[in-house]
Amino acid sequence: MGAALEIRNLHASVEDNLILRGVNLTIKQGEVHALMGPNGSGKSTLANVLLGHPAYVVTGGQVIFDGVDMLELEPNERSRAGLFLAFQYPVVIPGVTLANFLRQAINARMKADDPESKGIPIPQFRRMMMEKMDNLQMDHSFAGRYLNEGFSGGEKKRAEILQMAVLNPKISILDETDSGLDIDALRVVAEGVAKLKGPDLGVLVITHYQRILNYITPDFVHVMFEGRIVESGGADLALRLEETGYDWVREKYSTSAVE
Ligand code: ADP
Ligand code: MG
pTM for the whole thing? Predict the structure, then answer.
């Protein structure tokens, strides 16, 4: 049976501001969920909290993955447990090539599983990386470039999905992987994710817009507003939001007093 990421009544704050106000969501391996919502509703906060970003303080609720309390684990341990986050704003790491970064990530994981491990042999690593780069239509020269330095928006997002392909997570959280991409880059990135989809991978696609969902059809769509999931439905909910925008969500759920 596949593993499930269970988020229960999650509350979290940033710099003493309560942002997440009771999030409930369960994502199983093999399922694709879309998390939509207006800017500032807490989508990225949820992603960051799930992976253990130190700036975010959990003030209530639970995150259980495969029966294990994730909130007790360090970010690297959560990653090893099978969670992956593709960042909305990937970091630049000058001096570290993409290939080295990926190989270190694999080796760290192998050593954590088996302290005697010598890591992945370089020829085997290169073959695997090239194959996955081809899937994402990435030029092989990228392997030798410093991570994200001078990468275009589309190249950064491809590099994130390449990391995901190499790390082989059970649950992937893609935070606005579509933002800042032109339509061709969006298609390549989204199709790259769609290729990785399968019974062993659960995906949470965080997005403001419906268009990436044309390539990765969601089984479930959720709308976040003011730190809670206020609506859930099928793929049709995303299409409805595309037509109507988020005004009706604001009107229906806004808790701030309007005079
Ligand atoms: P979304 O991803 O849905 O656009 P975010 O989770 O980024 O929303 O932001 C939700 C709220 O939390 C916003 O009001 C934002 O200003 C605030 N916030 C998020 N991260 C931080 C941070 N690191 N420091 C201060 N405020 C933050
Ligand atoms: Mg965001």
Answer: 0.92
Q: Which atom of ligand 1 is nearest to the CA of 37?
A: 3
Alpha-carbon distance 121 to 50, whole Å? 32
Q: Mutation test of ligand 1: which of 19, 49, 209 has the most ligand atoms closer than 8 Å to its C-beta?
A: 19
Q: What is the CA radius of gyration of the chain?
A: 18
Average pLDDT, the chain: 92
What domains lie within the chain, and their CATH numbers? Answer: 4-90+169-253 (3.40.50.300), 92-150 (no CATH)
Confidence of residue 258 (pLDDT cuts 50, 70, 90): low
Query: Which residues, 6 or more positions from 26, have their beta carbon under 8 angstroms from its beta carbon?
Result: 4, 5, 6, 7
The reply to whether ligand 1 has any atom less than 6 angstroms from the CB of 227 is no
Residue 39 CA: which ligand 1 atom is closest? 4
